[in-house]
From TrEMBL:
Keyword Zinc listed: yes
Cofactor(s) required, per the database record: Zn(2+)
GO-annotated molecular function: beta-lactamase activity; hydroxyacylglutathione hydrolase activity; zinc ion binding
This protein's name: Hydroxyacylglutathione hydrolase
Subunit structure, interactors included: Monomer.
Binding site for Zn(2+) 1: 52, 54, 108, 130
Alphabetized HAMAP family for the sequence: Glyoxalase_2
Species for this entry: Comamonas testosteroni (Pseudomonas testosteroni)
Substrates-to-products reaction catalysed: an S-(2-hydroxyacyl)glutathione + H2O = a 2-hydroxy carboxylate + glutathione + H(+)
């Protein structure tokens, strides 16, 4: 099984997982990169998975569906290009010979979902859209900090070796903010240097791993003493005993960083 981030727009990734014959794509905001990759690799598209309704994640669906006939699965409570099989947390989609578990992760949007799969030779894969980024999380366009905290807690419970396949190349800017929050985190400094080298060589910084995110991502560390202290220092109204309050302060801080 092969995992491939297909670049789209200026900083999106459309994720493709494929075996020798069949492929699945996640959040195809553009059609052409997907169709050209399928043609180059001689693959038949088995399905399209969608995490949320934003245009840069769904804009290519109609053209891809017209060209391939592939069915679409997406969140139960968001507006998407029909026809779509609607799924929500606890559901499972059978693709590439195995299950893709659906996890509800509201926050960035109110109906955002993620997909969790072990199809890559048992390697856990998380396709989390704009909920979790490497070093960051999505803006709270429709949901609340409490929802995002609960969503990130749900993702944190997945296996530590899970590959985190998020939808944007935001890593370097996220890590610069993370260093403002935790300037004395040595793992963060090492990871930033690693990611800068990847970008200099034209490589994506993704996928990350859940283990890495738990060590370096302030939004996954809202219970860590240094992160709490930084949030309270930035906004004294932060409630240090409440991880969602800490996360909310971090998100507002990042919005203007």
């Amino acid at each position: 099984m092969n995992l491939l981030p297909i670049p789209a727009f200026s900083d999106n990734y459309i994720w493709m997982l494929h075996d020798a014959e069949h492929a699945v794509v996640v959040d195809p905001g553009q059609a052409e990169p997907v169709l050209s990759t399928l043609a180059q690799r001689g693959l038949k598209l088995q399905g399209i998975l969608v995490t949320h309704h934003h245009a840069d994640h769904v804009g290519g669906i109609d053209a891809i569906r017209a060209a391939t006939g592939a069915p679409v699965w997406g969140p139960a409570y968001e507006s998407l290009p029909e026809p779509v099989t609607r799924v929500q947390g606890g559901d499972s989609v059978e693709l590439l010979g195995g299950p893709w578990r659906v996890i509800d992760v509201p926050g960035h949007t109110s109906g955002h979902i993620a997909f969790f799969s072990t199809q890559a030779q048992g390697q856990p894969l998380l396709f989390c859209g704009d909920t979790l980024f490497s070093g960051g999380c999505g803006r709270l366009f429709e949901g609340t900090a409490a929802q995002m905290q609960a969503s990130l807690d749900a993702l944190a419970a997945l296996p530590a070796n899970t590959l985190v396949c998020c939808a944007h190349e935001y890593t370097i800017s996220n890590l610069r903010f993370a260093q403002a929050v935790e300037p004395n985190n040595p793992e963060l400094a090492q990871y930033l240097e690693h990611c800068q080298q990847l970008r200099k060589s034209g490589q994506p910084t993704l996928p990350s791993t859940l283990q890495t995110e738990l060590a370096i991502n302030p939004f996954m560390r809202s219970r860590a003493a240094d992160v709490i202290a930084a949030a309270v220092h930035h906004d004294p109204q932060t409630r240090p005993e409440d991880p969602a309050s800490v996360l909310g302060t971090l998100r507002q801080w990042k919005n203007v960083f």
